[in-house]
Structure formats: C-alpha cells, structure tokens
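Weekly puzzle thread! Below is a chain. First person to post its structure in token form gets bragging rights.
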Amino acid sequence: MRAAVLQQPGAPVAGTFDDPQPDDSHEVVRVVLAGLNPVDLAIASGAFGPLALPAVAGIEGIAELADGQLAYFQRPRSPYGSIAERAPVDPTRTFTLPQGLDPALAVALGVAGLAAWLPLKLRAQLQPGERVLILGASGIVGRFGVQAAKLLGAGHVVAAARNRTALEQTRALGADEVVVLEGDFAPAIKAAAGDGYDVVLDPLYGPPLEAALAAMAPGGRAVVVGAQAGTSIELPITSLRLRTIISHSNAQIPLPETRAAYEELAAHALAGRLQVPIERFALDQVAEAWTHQAASPHSKIVIVP
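Winning reply:
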C-alpha cells in the first residue's frame, strides 16, 4: 500500500509499505484522511524514545469502518500509522462521526481539539463568568481554546500569540481582547488580566507562562499542554502562591471521558460552533506537509491518501 514511511528518524517519504493484517483486536480500515500535528514530528524525530523502523508516520485519522461508518481513530497497531491507505485499528477505541460532519474538521477535533477542551473543562474546571487567557491562540489548539472557553461560559477571553494577523482572526472566534507576544509582552498580559486570570491554557511554556502566572488571580489554574516556547521557566514563589499549575496530556484521560469529550466537540462542530482553517495535502506531498507543519502553520494540516 502507499504510505508515509519513516526509514530513519526525521521526516517520512511517500512510498510503499506492507499491507496491514487484521488480528483478534484490530480490523484493517480504509483511511479517508490523516491529521498532522507537532507531536507527529516529535515522535518521528525520536524525541519520545527509540523508534522501531521502518514504520508508517501519523497517529490520528478518519477511517471507514467495516460497517461503512466513518470514525475517528488514533495510534494504529505498530509499526503502522495513520498516513497510509490502510491502517489496523481497534474498533472499540474509535469515535463514530455524526452524519454531515466534514472529515477534515473531525480529525482536527482529535489531538488538537481535545488538547483544548479537556484542559479547560476537566482539568481547570472552567466556571461560567471566569476570565481566561489562551496562550498560543493563533495555533490550532489555541483557536480551539478560544472557542471552547466561550462555549464553556467564560466571561472574558484574552487571546495571546506572536502573529498579529492570525491573532486578529481569533476575535471572530470569540476573543474579547488580544495580546501580541513580542518584545517585553509581560506588561501587556498583565494589563489585559483585569483582576487576574482564573484559567490559563498554555501550549507554549517558557516566558509566556511566566508572564501569565504573574497575572493570575488567587485560585487561578494554568493548564500546560505543550512547550513550543521553551522547556523551562523561572517560578518565583509570588507567582505560585494560591495558584495551581496542571500538566495535561490527552493520553492521561480514560477512554470513556475522552469519547464523551470528542462527541461534545463533534456536536458543536456539526452545529457550526467550532471552526479552524484547514489545508489539505496528498500523500505524495507528505514531505511538503511535514515542512509546513514544522513552520508552525495557523491551520490544521490533513493528508489524503
């Protein structure tokens, strides 16, 4: 079959790979499209541990199941990945799509959508009326975060990011205020805090989180979902006092809660309450898509086998 094949750590190439075979817990499905995420690049680089190569890249996709239904899936059986014509998946761990939902938007609701919804709803337990800061708001997790915060009842949402043009687009998604992360941005984050942020969604870490923590209200909760701006912070005791920092990974959440969250997101998306820009690439363009993802696009990249 055609697939995005990793022969060595780094970027995959479009090529051929042995067809997967079903077993007692996996059925072989036709992949409709696959999503590409920063985590895919990290895994392929070996950042998460040694790789068993050759392998197929990609951890999420939309598949056509044996009964003809479309479903979201993650992490096919090794050494297979999602960026291929077919993949071996556990059907008990797939999430069926509601009829009418665009598969490209459906795959965006997975890694990225859940990385916004689960931290805000389950980890931070965002309450109606609270003031929320979304760091990295121009990225896909951040864009979902702005919309999710509003859907969960946030009273005031501040979006912060580096790219001015992409940041301004978040106003149409529900951002009440924006902060450009350039130069000495800490005073601007503080000025937008009002009486302090109750909840911070952080896919950046580094200096942006330092500034956010210093501007949080007593009882504030910051949920860290990534480290795109650095892997360490300075944490004065004054920034920690009466505040909580929570580390989040989608993989930490039990399957029933993850399924329920995905179904909530899918319902919102079908109703038009969630949207993100999407760019489609053919499987033969996987090298181009990989490079584009590495440049931190402000869109969700999907690859069609």
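Puzzle host: Confirmed. Bonus trivia for everyone else. The first strand starts at residue 2 and ends at 6.
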